[in-house]
């Protein structure tokens, strides 16, 4: 196929070589259209490397030679209706990479200097200088000698001396620094928004006199939906019926629930911890309160690390020495060229660049490994964590436990016990609940709803009624101690036989124990390696579990780890108390959990981590999400934290030493002011590109941990 050949009315081949295809697309390449094409190429042909040039409507695709015919066929059959639908759908632009930001800035500057006449560029620089002066004046009025004052002075003096290019270069570097810092925060925002994104596909919507399950994206304002205890609220709305306790940690940061009644407003991405609600939807999608919260976060500095802030403070503190050097040099030598060395080398450009660039690189490296970090401060602080607190179920064990045995009692059939158990458990997120439902599906046991209103009691179990008689499922403590269900000799024999090897789930109906489920929670393949590795690094490890003490001890023996502390039969508030106790003892604590039971502890911990399969609330209150589902990626985080700290230390030392040397060279007339300005700018760019280098392979990170 030759250059310039049309595949269809929308796509023309501009150039083709083995493994590379350049196309012109006669369609508007909006973010949504590009995302549509990228998604289809990724899913259908496993092509991930594309380069867009939206202004010229061209696309370069890189592929393997054997994919050539399939790729050409895809573009030849490009669906006009799908493109039109994508065009009408708004898609948020993902944050630019730092390389892309710098590349665009450099290209734009070259075009600007080449195409814009010098008089216009001079006027534009005067306008920019006026803005710097305005900001400097505001700072001085408040008694603050900031970097902005130094920048304004350097630009103004350069313009007054007719050194237009020097002023323009300073302005360019400062603007680029601001863009890169904004990009770092935007990346944090992007990860945060992704982690808070609704994971609900189906909801219960009122139609006539009953609630039916429908796709979440079909719900409109004014519809009535039903939400059960333990579930995420998918939309903002008003309570029409029922009362409940709602955890609003994702909005307010408060880990404990707020009681809501008929007429109260409720918000998307909060979790119903107690009760059952009928809610009239008032807002959907981007109108929800959670979307507004994310917007607020982007305007704050809550995601910045202390090192990032320290670099800014250091840059400001050094300003007075620049002015002091300027004044003393001129007073002693009466040589303005020497004195101006202190303005041309201001330290701040590079210091302000290296923070956001290095954190952006670290967060990208982590994301490439399947780990999402919601803010730079969490990667900075990770190596300082000295105590790791692990929930057991779904964290150290797999998120997919299995029902190994079902023992029916008191004359009930096994299938009937499974039917009742699955009918109760299907309404709630928990790995064991999922295992119950899977078992019923595998055995083709239908479990249509036969119960009345259902109530989930955190860390205990579920209660409801069938045919007017009470039915409960949950822990032994809940069934035997709280519900006062008697254990027959046959039941006690089953418990004695299996309670050491399995987690036991008890089902009682009409105050009789009718079945025991033996749950086998397999240990994660990397759990032992992770725990042993953390101990080898001098970290304390603590186990929290709702299991009985003998099960907790058996688990520790099975995994071959001597925990520093083991807490068995803990309730959610007790998990919170353990974290609080450790912090009060002076420890920096990371909590690794997965369920609603863990949300308060995750929120309180210095850093909260969750794995891929986790509850909505746990995902919201966490600081780091390990989508790779590998516990060993905690070593990636520790290594990145160490590498980041070391790189920032070396970069700061180089910036201070190199730029200090330039000032010294100017004072003894070794270098001219133009050479000093060039070397200063060159070193700033060099530090920027060094900051963009990945932190190394897994093997290199492993060396950091030795």
TrEMBL record:
One of its GO terms (molecular function) is ATP binding. Its main location: membrane. It is a multi-pass membrane protein. It catalyses: Cd(2+)(in) + ATP + H2O = Cd(2+)(out) + ADP + phosphate + H(+). The keyword Transmembrane helix applies. Residues 199-297 form the P-type ATPase A domain. GO terms for cellular component: plasma membrane. Transmembrane segments: none annotated. It is an enzyme of class 7 (translocase). It is found in: Cell membrane; Membrane. It comes from the Bacteria. Gene3D superfamilies: Calcium-transporting ATPase, cytoplasmic domain N, Calcium-transporting ATPase, cytoplasmic transduction domain A, HAD superfamily/HAD-like. Pfam families: E1-E2_ATPase (PF00122), Hydrolase (PF00702). Its EC number is 7.2.2.21. Keywords: ATP-binding, Cadmium, Cell membrane, Membrane, Metal-binding, Nucleotide-binding, Translocase, Transmembrane, Transmembrane helix. Belongs to the cation transport ATPase (P-type) (TC 3.A.3) family. Type IB subfamily. NCBIfam families: ATPase-IB_hvy, ATPase_P-type. This is Cd(2+)-exporting ATPase. It comes from Suicoccus acidiformans. The lineage of its organism: Bacteria, Bacillati, Bacillota, Bacilli, Lactobacillales.
């Amino acid at each position: 196929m030759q250059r310039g050949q049309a595949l269809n009315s929308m796509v023309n081949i501009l150039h083709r070589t083995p493994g590379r295809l350049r196309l012109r697309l006669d369609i508007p390449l909006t973010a949504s259209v590009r995302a549509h094409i990228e998604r289809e190429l990724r899913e259908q042909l496993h092509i991930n490397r594309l380069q867009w040039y939206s202004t010229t409507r061209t696309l370069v695709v890189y592929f393997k030679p054997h994919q050539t015919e399939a790729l050409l066929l895809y573009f030849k059959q490009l669906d006009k209706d799908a493109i039109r639908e994508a065009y009408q759908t708004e898609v948020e632009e993902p944050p630019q990479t730092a390389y892309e930001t710098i590349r665009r800035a450099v290209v734009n500057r070259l075009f600007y200097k080449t195409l814009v006449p010098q008089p216009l560029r001079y006027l534009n620089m005067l306008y920019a200088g006026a803005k710097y002066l305005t900001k400097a004046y505001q700072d001085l009025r408040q008694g603050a000698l900031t970097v902005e004052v130094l920048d304004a002075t350097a630009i103004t003096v350069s313009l007054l001396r007719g050194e237009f290019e020097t002023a323009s270069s300073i302005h360019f570097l400062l603007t680029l620094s601001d863009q890169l810092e904004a990009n770092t925060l935007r990346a944090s925002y992007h990860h945060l928004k992704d982690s808070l994104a609704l994971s609900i596909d189906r909801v219960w919507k009122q139609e006539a006199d009953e609630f039916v399950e429908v796709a979440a994206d079909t719900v409109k304002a004014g519809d009535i939906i039903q939400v059960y205890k333990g579930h995420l609220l998918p939309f903002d709305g008003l309570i029409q019926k029922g009362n409940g306790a709602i955890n609003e940690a994702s909005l307010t940061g408060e880990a404990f629930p707020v009681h809501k009644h008929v007429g109260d407003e409720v918000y998307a991405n909060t979790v119903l911890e107690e009760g059952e609600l009928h809610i009239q939807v008032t807002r959907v999608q981007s109108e929800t309160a959670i979307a507004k919260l994310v917007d607020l976060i982007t305007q704050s500095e809550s995601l910045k690390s202390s090192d990032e802030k320290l670099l800014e403070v250091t840059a400001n503190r050094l300003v007075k020495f620049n002015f002091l050097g300027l004044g003393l040099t001129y007073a002693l030598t009466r040589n303005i060229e020497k004195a101006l060395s202190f303005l041309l080398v201001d330290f701040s450009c590079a210091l302000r660049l290296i923070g956001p660039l290095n954190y952006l690189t670290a967060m990208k490296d982590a994301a490439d490994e399947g780990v999402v970090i919601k803010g730079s401060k969490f990667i900075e602080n990770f190596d300082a964590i000295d105590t790791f607190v692990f929930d057991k179920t779904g964290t150290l064990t797999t998120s997919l436990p299995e029902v190994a045995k079902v023992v029916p009692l008191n004359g009930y059939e096994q299938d009937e016990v499974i039917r009742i158990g699955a009918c109760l458990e299907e309404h709630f997120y928990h790995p064991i609940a999922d295992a119950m439902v899977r078992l019923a599906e595998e055995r083709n046991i239908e479990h249509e709803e036969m119960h009345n209103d259902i109530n989930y009691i955190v860390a205990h179990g579920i209660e409801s009624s069938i045919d007017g008689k009470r039915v409960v499922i949950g822990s032994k403590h809940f069934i035997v101690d709280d519900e006062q269900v008697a254990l027959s000799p046959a039941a006690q024999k089953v418990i004695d036989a299996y309670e050491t090897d399995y987690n036991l789930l008890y089902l009682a109906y009409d105050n009789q124990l009718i079945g025991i489920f033996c749950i086998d929670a397999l240990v994660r393949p990397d759990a032992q390696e992770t725990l042993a590795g953390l101990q080898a690094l001098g970290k304390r490890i603590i186990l929290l579990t709702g299991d009985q003490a003998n099960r907790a001890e058996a688990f520790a023996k099975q995994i071959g780890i001597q925990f520093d502390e083991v807490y068995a039969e803990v309730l959610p508030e007790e998990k919170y108390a353990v974290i609080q106790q450790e912090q009060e003892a002076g420890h920096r604590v990371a909590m690794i959990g997965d369920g609603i039971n863990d949300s308060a502890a995750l929120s309180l911990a210095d850093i909260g981590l969750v794995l891929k399969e986790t509850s909505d609330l746990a995902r919201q209150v966490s600081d780091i999400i390990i989508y790779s589902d590998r516990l060993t990626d905690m070593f990636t985080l520790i290594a990145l934290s160490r590498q980041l700290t070391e790189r920032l230390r070396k970069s700061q030392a180089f910036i201070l030493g190199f730029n200090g040397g330039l000032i010294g060279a100017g004072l003894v007339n070794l270098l001219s002011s133009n050479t000093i300005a060039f070397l200063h700018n060159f070193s700033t760019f060099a530090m920027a590109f060094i900051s963009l280098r990945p932190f190394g392979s897994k093997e290199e990170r492993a060396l950091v941990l030795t």
